[in-house]
Specification:
alpha/beta, 12 strands, globular, single chain, eight-stranded parallel β-barrel, TIM Barrel, 10 helices, 18% strand
């Protein structure tokens, strides 16, 4: 596995603004605040129903939200964490990402995964496929087509899941190589798709789980002849910052409780002061993770948005 370098890395911060239990002014203001203090990217979901707490909570659509955020920001990269491949034909996804790249001035990242939330597929009559393995096979074929379309290829394709007939994506994205982020950690399929065609990879979990997944990704990269250093490693955590840990835990309980739940997924939750949060993240940085995504439920915590910059400085040696 690639070894970490001795010099302090350049750490990038991404704000994953939950699109449930919120409204446009709130998500707009949180993104503007993140850009003002120096975050690098903003992400939101691609869901049609709320995924934490009651499913019938209000939730905003992802691609439209990103396009709207592009008009009130000027520097932040913008992406879905992550897009549901089942929702759209990859030709449509390529056009959405390309259009976002144009309206944002070249700031789009195409985040995509296999999809997992069966309830929203059932609610809206979207084909969920025959099982998890089939959805990941569909994802692999879609990512292959997305890369070719974004790179300007004219495609005729008769595949297991998709059929294209002289398809192309014009205009091309502003970015010469619009990056594709793949979310998920399936050892046999998702990580192989990442090794083949991913520009970024997102995961979440304990340091032991993450180390094991990274070793698997390394093996897939070696198998397909890919230098794993070409793939930007991203990891996400729920985060809330206060000077006192007890205050952070209390603020988190109130915030997450307003979403009708008690946690933000089966992943490490980071509460406390910037030093405590940086200490929890540092082992991931030592593994090579250079982009830290903070999971930020609404109502978005402004103190955390402002003080994550302190965490970045600590991790970067600043």
């Amino acid at each position: 596995m690639n070894q970490p370098t001795s010099s302090a890395p350049r750490i990038r911060l991404g704000a994953q603004l939950w699109s449930q239990h919120t409204d446009w002014p709130a998500i707009r203001d949180a993104a503007v605040a993140a850009e003002a203090v120096g975050w690098d990217s903003v992400w939101t979901w691609d869901h049609l129903l709320a995924i934490f707490g009651p499913a019938d909570q209000p939730i905003l659509e992802g691609w439209t939200t990103l396009a709207a955020l592009s008009s009130v920001t000027s520097r932040l990269q913008l992406g879905l964490m992550v897009g549901a491949n089942t929702f759209r034909n990859p030709g449509l996804t390529a056009k959405l990402a390309t259009t976002l790249d144009h309206v944002s001035g070249g700031r789009a990242i195409l985040g995509i995964g296999g999809a997992w939330f069966e309830r929203e597929h059932e609610a809206f009559g979207i084909d969920f496929g025959a099982g998890f393995g089939e959805r990941l096979d569909r994802l692999d074929e879609a990512v292959m087509l997305l890369r070719r379309l974004l790179d300007g290829e004219r495609i005729t394709h008769e595949g297991r899941f998709y059929q294209f007939h002289d398809a192309l994506c014009e205009p091309r994205p502003i970015q010469p190589h619009l990056p594709i982020l793949i979310g998920g950690s399936g050892p046999k399929k998702t990580l192989r798709t990442t090794a083949l065609r991913g520009d970024l990879w997102n995961t979440a979990g304990t340091i032991e789980e993450t180390r094991t997944r990274l070793e698997i990704l390394d093996a897939h990269c070696a198998d397909v002849g890919r230098d794993r250093s070409e793939i930007e490693l991203t990891v996400s955590f729920p985060v809330l910052i206060r000077d006192r840990q007890a205050d952070a835990e209390a603020a988190w309980a109130s915030l997450i409780g307003s979403n009708g739940t008690i946690h933000a997924g089966a992943v490490p939750h980071l509460y406390g002061n910037p030093e405590q949060v940086a200490d929890a993240i540092r082992p991931y940085v030592e593994l090579g993770f250079s982009t830290i995504i903070a999971r930020l439920p609404a109502p978005y915590d402004l103190e955390t948005i402002e003080r994550m910059i302190e965490v970045r400085n600590l991790l970067s040696g600043g």
